[in-house]
Automatic annotation (TrEMBL):
Residues 1-29 are annotated as: Disordered. It comes from Actinocatenispora rupis. Residues 1-11 have a biased composition (Basic residues). Residues 15-26 have a biased composition (Basic and acidic residues). This is ATP/GTP-binding protein. It comes from the Bacteria.
Amino acid sequence: MSPRRNRRHVSTARQEPDSGVRRGVETSESWPDGVWRVRPVTGDAGKTYRCPGCDQEIRPGTGHLVCWPDGAVDDRRHWHTGCWRARLRRAPVLQRSRNAPRYG
């Protein structure tokens, strides 16, 4: 007979380390490109979103951020957390056709 596994309780298994940010609570962040409202979400909506930072899909169940300029709720976008933090260091993602030149 195999030894019994120690299982974590459901209430403690889903807790995250205290990072100072609670899930679903909006915060206001001041960046060089303005003041942004940022809300962390768990991705439980069952929808797939497209991250504007890397142009990759954010699959259902993946934790990410919903961000918008302060006062412009209609401009909300779903971002990977890392893409949001690095957006000022990255060049914009350009979509080119297969035969388009790579210069300016």
